[in-house]
TrEMBL record:
<comment type="function">
    <text>Involved in the assembly process of the P-ring formation. It may associate with FlgF on the rod constituting a structure essential for the P-ring assembly or may act as a modulator protein for the P-ring assembly.</text>
</comment>
<dbReference type="GO" id="GO:0042597">
    <property type="term" value="C:periplasmic space"/>
</dbReference>
<dbReference type="GO" id="GO:0044780">
    <property type="term" value="P:bacterial-type flagellum assembly"/>
</dbReference>
<comment type="similarity">
    <text>Belongs to the FlgA family.</text>
</comment>
<keyword id="KW-0969">Cilium</keyword>
<feature type="domain" description="SAF">
    <location>
        <begin position="121"/>
        <end position="183"/>
    </location>
</feature>
<keyword id="KW-0574">Periplasm</keyword>
<dbReference type="InterPro" id="IPR013974">
    <property type="entry name" value="SAF"/>
</dbReference>
<keyword id="KW-1005">Bacterial flagellum biogenesis</keyword>
<keyword id="KW-0966">Cell projection</keyword>
<dbReference type="InterPro" id="IPR017585">
    <property type="entry name" value="SAF_FlgA"/>
</dbReference>
<protein>
    <recommendedName>
        <fullName>Flagella basal body P-ring formation protein FlgA</fullName>
    </recommendedName>
</protein>
<keyword id="KW-0282">Flagellum</keyword>
<dbReference type="InterPro" id="IPR039246">
    <property type="entry name" value="Flagellar_FlgA"/>
</dbReference>
<dbReference type="Pfam" id="PF13144">
    <property type="entry name" value="ChapFlgA"/>
</dbReference>
<keyword id="KW-0732">Signal</keyword>
Length: 245
């Protein structure tokens, strides 16, 4: 009887020891570099997927895009969380730098971090130098696929948008063109004789005038009516022609 009791006790102890060994093995796997690396990839992928999905829904853009984490090493791990992570942002994500807060509700903690949203798209760039006031032609520009998140001043997406405009200052080859660098050429020069056209419902009258300032297409300038000597505001509609509405 004593031998039988010892036999069962040995079996129970063996099972207990096996359970302990199994638990230790699982913990070892969870704490291993491979497991930590997998966990690290999981939270990064989760954040990237959530932000890119929100950005694509907001913009309708399906171009190449990705997320990078600013100032965070590849070895960094978030604290443990028993529930899915929540991403809070002050505004919808945009191409470029964004500040977000990663929140866990069990146990509660918040981690603030900065991310960069990279969006690769076509931009108009210079093939050769441009002098100040030089008018842009097809020979001066080309399309290049670059990261929109790095263009804080904006960019042009089509070559047709810049043709005929002139440089406000000297520009180097490779420059990504933006609105602050270019201006429309003047169609009317100061003191130039122009035609003033009055265009209103049921009436259209034309009279000679003199431009008191230069102006480009769509710009409002002051013009002197040479018949009445009155000064009026008129809009440049083409070379030598302004319109009063």
């Amino acid at each position: 009887m004593t031998l039988l009791r010892l036999h069962y006790q040995s079996i129970a102890e063996a099972r207990t020891m096996s359970g302990i060994i199994l638990i230790i093995s699982l913990l070892t796997c969870l704490l291993s570099p491979q497991a930590r690396a997998q966990s690290d990839r999981d939270w990064r992928q989760h954040i990237e997927q959530q932000l890119l999905q929100q950005w694509r829904q907001q913009t309708g853009i399906r171009d190449d895009a990705s997320i990078s984490f600013i100032g965070i090493s590849h070895q960094y791990q978030l604290p443990q969380c028993q529930l899915p992570l929540t991403i809070d942002a002050l505004r919808p994500p945009l191409a470029g730098r964004n500040n977000i807060a990663i929140r866990c509700d069990a146990p509660y903690w918040v981690q603030n971090m900065a991310i960069q949203l990279h969006h690769m798209t076509n931009m108009v760039t210079l093939k050769r130098p441009l002098a100040s006031d030089q008018v842009i032609t097809n020979k001066d520009v080309r399309l290049a696929r670059l990261d929109a998140g790095e263009q804080t001043k904006g960019y042009y997406a089509a070559i047709e948008q810049v043709l005929g405009q002139k440089a406000k200052r000297s520009l180097r080859p490779g420059t990504v063109l933006s609105e602050d660098m270019l201006s429309l050429p003047d169609l009317i020069q100061r003191r130039q004789r122009v035609t003033i056209q009055v265009d209103r419902p049921g009436i259209r009258v034309e009279m000679p005038g003199e431009a008191l300032s230069s102006g480009h297409l769509g710009e409002s300038i002051r013009v002197r009516n040479l018949q009445s000597r009155r000064i009026v505001e008129a809009t440049v509609v083409e070379a030598g022609l302004v319109q009063v509405r």
